[in-house]
Amino acid sequence: MVETLNAGLKKLSVLCVATGFAINSFAQAPPKPYGALPNKAQLNWHEMGMYCIIHFGVDTYTNKEWGYGDEDPAIVNPTKFDAMQIVGAAKAGGFKGVVIVAKHHDGLAIWPTKTTEHNITKTSWKNGKGDMVKEYKLACQKLGMQLGLYCSPWDRNNPYYGTPKYLEIYRAQIKELYTNYGPIFISWHDGANGGDGYYGGKREERKIDRTTYYDWDNTWAMIRKWQPNAAIFGDIGADVRWVGNEEGEAGKTSWATYAPQAPDAGKKPSNGYSKYWEATEGTRSGNWMPAECDVPLRPGWFYHASQNEQVKTPYQLLDLYYKSVGRGADLDLGLSPNRDGLLDDNDVASLKQFGALLKQTFAVNLLKGASFTASNIRGNSKAKFGPAFLTDADRYSYWATDDAVKTPSLVADMHTARTFNVIRLRENIKLGQRINSIAVDAYLNGEWKEIATATSIGANRLIRLPQNITASKVRLRVTGAEACVALSDFGLFKEPAHLTAPGISRDKKGMVTIATDAPVSSIRYTTDGTAPTALSPVYQNSFALANGGTVKAVSFEGNKASELSTKAFGLSKEGWKVLATSAQADTKPEYAIDEDANSNWNTLPKDSLATAAFPQEIAIDMGAEQTIKSFTYLPRQDKKTGGIADRYIFYTSADGQTWQQVAVGEFSNIQANPIEQTVPLAKAVQARYFKFSVLHVTKGNGLAVAELGVN
Ligand code: FUL
User: Fold this and answer.
1) What residue stretches are annotated with the F5/8 type C domain (predicted)?
2) Domains of the chain
3) Which of 344, 394, 506, 649 is the most buried (most CB within 10 A)?
4) How close is the Cα of 471 to the center of ligand 1, in Å?
């Protein structure tokens, strides 16, 4: 048997020599693809890396995050609406497209649709003759930006929501949008589904089975027909998965592949404790379904003037960029035009500076021009698979190794010492996600020293080092792979040096502290709302801010200034006491008023099957009568989702015994985006006591309160 085989091989080589065909040409064929592969729409999506999602509608005028569906469209009148200003600001930020929220949960369509009366023609804008989706489309065309569309499946206005007829209406809406306004790069579908709403005047709760109601398989097939080049985004794909949080962060390991699981299925215990579902990391095998990280530029998705001071700064955005795009995901940044229909100046400025920072950081790949020595090159063919392809601009040209070589190494000699703090690696994903893990060494003081490790390379992996490294030689070691390596990019970059903005906090005694991670020459601050300059007071010691207010601070070092830090505080909680609670808890109720966002009053029992009665209440004695203009509730900040209140009543009292209801409502989108909620009162109230009564939580059998506050 062996002999026949040998004889056969000999014959083959004779044949090869005779035809001038080298034996190792077999090895020079490109590597076979490994595992799941991206489709055309997904490749385009990966290449984009970043886009924005734009929320504007009735919520912009009612100051809500989710409309109930009973809003009068006439309140919508963005007299200065300018799609070019909005899309242009996104472009300046380096974003490659915009997803327009054509209809949010409140049901108001911002294009003149035939599918529902509740649409833009009923607004005051342009006397009902306007079409926002069209204006966005034209702006995108002019600016070379790609367009995406989001039409919310949940519709709190539509009388038919919950019945089969609504599915027909929903599909007709998508058809209208996708056949009249395309081409689109993404078909965006959120996972918020069912609940109470206006529903044509019924004002009731409508529950649907999210796994069957929308018949996604068939809906997706229609989308493919209307928009074959659009990636479909949803909680479980089909093409792009939700990362599982609205903080803009993928897992440190984040596979492009995912074995779809409904986000609330799987490992999550029934009391809803775990927030980070598998979607954050993906799974090592499964369908090609990379993560999208959606996060708003401000705390909320819609515009709220009260959040004007909380626009994320360029360096905060850069940090999110590393945590999303740098982990193989895409960043989808929420923009919220104001009531005039424009982005505020602050938002525009932050986007522009972020775009400039990105450009500056990635302008020069320090490995360009380096000499590479690879431990292996596929078929020994430098011309076809050599490391020179690592520094060209083509994301699909690549350095490859022989089939059997899964853990090669590569030395890059830059010939002269260079300083860097960012490492970039990319695989040629047309051949799948092959690499499991890598390490990078720098040649320092005559020896190799490991400076970084990473998992899940895929379309993009950025490693931001904690300190600058100066070296002339670096070494890449692939430490694990499922198949031979097909790496398309290796880069070293230097982010511009900057001073970190100071942190501002207040303690239970009402004392404000401003601090930085590393020493600086001075921290300057204001409490009058103006931005600190080099002439503002120098921060020396903690100071009191009994009646609340806004503190702004900047660090200075030489001629460098940090970004601005801003923090708004309500009334000081000095002297506040918990008067009573209605539910048993293992944690102290005082945690709800200790000015520490990381501690919770938490009534969730350890037994996840135990039942809990609502309302659950906590009453506070502020020690003296105060003027109350609004209340704040900060849900738990520990990434867990049990016990987050979404329906509440606030009461006040002069004596701690007789209570008056002063506010009632819902906290919308609080589970996905657990930010501080502000409840303004219709008119200011004088009281010494207040009570937070929670009627309902999004998940779990108890309540968790990180902080309660009063403004
Ligand atoms: C979520 C929605 O519930 C939010 O309101 C927002 O639109 C966000 C982008 O998606 O699912």
Assistant:
1) 564-711
2) 41-362 (3.20.20.80), 371-493 (2.60.120.260), 503-569 (2.60.40), 577-710 (2.60.120.260)
3) 506
4) 45
